[in-house]
Design a protein that fits this description.
Number of strands: 8
CATH topology of one domain: L-fuculose-1-phosphate Aldolase
Largest sheet: 8 strands, mixed
CATH architecture of one domain: 3-Layer(aba) Sandwich
Protein name: Putative aldolase class 2 protein CC-1201
Shape: globular
Family: Belongs to the aldolase class II family. Adducin subfamily.
Order of helices and strands: HHHEEEEHEHHEHEEHHH
Strand order of the largest sheet: 4-3-2-1-5-8-7-6
Distance between the termini: 28 Å
Organism: Stylophora pistillata
CATH superfamily of one domain: Class II aldolase/adducin N-terminal domain
CATH class of one domain: Alpha Beta
Oligomer: single chain
InterPro entries: Aldolase-II_Adducin_sf, Aldolase_II/adducin_N, Aldolase_II/adducin_N_sf
Structural class: alpha+beta
GO molecular function, one term: actin filament binding
Length: 295
């Protein structure tokens, strides 16, 4: 009986965070694991902390495998992180993949948990120093950024190698990022200090996309589903733009009012459609490896 009541309370906690019909629809259709809310009070019980930690691990493992499936990984480099309640019930940890593990092999139990000082507190493996350097400062500065995804995805990275800042509102997919991105044009080598994360946090501010000149791209998201969805559609937008640019013709940019309208329409139901996408790729991955979320 007690466990049933506890489960009911957990479900209610997530449902009361929904603020619209769309989000209520999301709560009905998708499991708790894709609706993690960092605003909840973690650590009320060790059992809850362990359960929430595991669900975050499942989501992050799905994101690693899903982005690799889409061809957006780069060897065993670049990094995705997600904040989660510590298994101990005491505070939070930053989840990441151990350096050297291929993204296609990510499982919930393989992921590491790191403290806000960069110390390994959960799991076994090598903590990538670049991941710590970039991500800890960002997570600390942006409590809303449950997830920080840093990629060298081909088309997006190709665009940020150009001297001019060319990403514009050329297509419906571009408009989902209307006025929600900034550029960093001061690449100074491989990040090794937490000061780099602090610098990037100041640059990105409250926006969700940071184009990292001569480097790659970084996304923030309140859930793994949203960060995953944004990363995928940014790569698609950049791919379409690159193809159009190859014609040598001038690209036709959408009017300001239409760009903003399209952004507003997209963001209104972003949670719902991001979760649908995330669950869709999870199903594809489970078909290939039915037990990966249980390992």
């Amino acid at each position: 009986m007690a466990s049933n009541v506890f489960s009911a309370v957990l479900r209610l906690q997530f449902q009361i965070t929904t603020r619209s019909v769309t989000k209520y629809k999301q709560a009905l259709l998708f499991p708790m694991s894709v609706r993690q809310k960092r605003s909840l009070t973690y650590g009320s019980t060790t059992d809850y902390a362990k359960e929430a930690n595991w669900k975050c691990r499942q989501d992050l493992a799905t994101a690693f495998r899903g982005l690799h499936y889409y061809g957006m990984s780069e060897g065993v480099c670049t990094h995705l992180t997600m904040m989660a309640p510590a298994m101990s019930g005491d505070g939070e940890v930053m989840l990441m993949i151990p350096h050297g593990l291929h993204w296609s092999q990510a499982t919930p139990s393989s992921l590491l948990g790191v403290s806000n000082k960069g110390e390994l507190v959960e799991g076994n493996g090598h903590v990538q120093k670049e991941s710590n350097a970039i991500h800890i400062g960002l997570h600390n500065a942006r409590p809303d950024a449950v997830c920080v995804f840093h990629l060298h995805s081909p088309y997006t990275t190709a665009l940020v190698m150009l001297e001019e800042k060319v990403f514009g509102m050329f297509h419906q997919t571009h408009c989902r990022f209307y006025n929600d991105f900034v550029y960093d044009t001061n690449y100074e080598g491989v990040a090794t200090s937490s000061k780099e994360g602090e610098r990037l946090a100041k640059l990105i501010g409250k926006k969700s996309v940071l184009f990292m000149g001569n480097h790659g791209v970084l996304f923030t998201g309140s859930t793994a589903a949203i960060a995953f969805d944004q990363a995928y559609f940014m790569e698609r937008a950049c791919m379409m733009q690159m193809i159009a640019m190859q014609t040598g013709k001038k690209l036709r940019e959408l009017p300001e009012d239409i760009s903003k309208l399209t952004y507003d329409q997209t963001i209104e139901e972003l949670d719902y459609y991001a979760n649908a996408h995330f669950e869709g790729i999870r199903a594809v991955l489970l078909e290939k490896d039915p037990e990966f979320l249980n390992r």
